[in-house]
Amino acid sequence: MSKSKLLSKRTKQLLSDPLDDNNPITVQVLGICSALAITVQLKPAIVMALSVLVVLSVANVIISLMRKVIPSRIRIIVQLVVVATLVILVDQVLRAFVYDVSKELSVFVGLIITNCIIMGRLEAFGMANGPWDSFMDGLGNSFGYAWILIAVAFFRELLGSGTLFGYPVLESLGIYELGYENNGMMILPPMALITVGVIIWIQRVKNIKLVESK
Amino acid sequence: MDVNKNSTTFGFTVIMVIIVAALLSTAAIELKPFQDRNVELEKKQNILSSVGVTIDRDGAENIYDTYIKSELVLNVKGEQVEGSAFDVDLGVEMKKDANAQLLPLFISNVEGVTRYIIPLRGKGLWGPIWGFISLEEDLNSVFGAVFDHKSETPGLGAEINRPSFEDPFSGKSIFEGEEFTSIKVIKGGAEEGDMHGVDGISGGTITSDGVSDMLDERLRMYLPYFSTLKPAAEVDSVFNTLVSLASVKIQ
After folding, report:
1. Considering only A20-34, B42-56, B169-183, B191-205, which range has the smallest mean pLDDT?
2. Are A60 and A86 contacting, i.e. CB atoms less than 8 angstroms apart?
3. What residues does each domain of chain B span?
4. Run of H or E including B116
5. Which of A36, A77, A95, A105 should be substituted to probe chain B, the one whose Cβ sees the most B Cβ atoms within 10 Å?
6. ipTM (interface pTM)
7. Which of A41, A69, A92 is facing B31, going by the closest CB pair?
8. Domain span including residue A87
9. Do A184 and B28 touch (CB under 8 A)?
10. Domain presence at residue A76
11. Across all residues in chain A, what is the average pLDDT?
């Protein structure tokens, strides 16, 4: 495969589109469930983003390779089986060889299967495109998912617990002495939704073409 | 080939299921020994950590026997019975009738100090929680506690395995005079000087309550055994006091 094909304009777009114009969370409003569930702290959010990256790009390639032989009536089931198998395999391998990471992931591994972004990309992209493009699409969407997740987790951990990666940032800056207190609301799920909402708002102010015409 | 024929659909499903089943069961069987080993080492690491010996998982194996001097299996009457305490699975025991349960107990000796380590197991919000609590020789003061969980909410209930939650247990006591009080995890924070309470976790109340219930339920099971040891412990402390008095006089 020539270099021009590897990073053509189209593949670049596959990578960059989901970061802004076609973001899976803020524009397509998929994967909201995990954006609420695991953004209390930064570390789990990053681990989740990495896991989704692996599962989504590999599953997209597998589905893309099989797309011509999958009977259309059972395609959703096939996609689900591919994703679930991958997730279980990853979980088993992690538990055997990198036990600490697997403990960190704990419940998220199961959550990956239910991530609507994965099923959405397999159905919308993997089923209709070649393996390389599907891989790129998987990467692009994972990055789009990852940056929202990390941004939300950053604000929730900082404002809710006063820490980042567990390190007491606000305490070491001496903010508490000025009478500041952590906002306990930030660690509860509703604030994740509101934080995502604020991100969507900012994004639409900056990116006017996302705003629907009246 | 028309992939949408009924026969092709059936054929595809059968082949897919067989491949996936074979793949997953092979992976599960091949990886099981590695996974079991990790769990065993982690248990040793947790037991050691409850008596203040911090070591990484791989190192736990080597020093476990140095510090853990005896492992007892007790029945509910507090009598010692045959068996290997390390292999007693509390998850299995707790499904048995309360009178038929086996109670594992580990006794450690770190730098000459004897401590009793009691394994714990209970229910959190989403799944099991477990841990180890170590008592000083007086069978009243807590030396340390470690907790862990299967699937508590990250950042909330899952915080029970953090030092910020575990450390305050140290120095608390499980008896008020002669009465067993256990240690409660208190929503909104324990009052200063409360010897039987520690701070709960904001947003993790159900897990915190699970820890309280677990401590009460499991420690209570050991009371008969404690009462067999207590007189001896008291005699020891009286003896020690006499010895120290005597040495003061000699000086």
Report:
1. A20-34
2. no
3. 41-240
4. strand B113-123
5. A95
6. 0.73
7. A92
8. 23-207
9. no
10. yes
11. 86
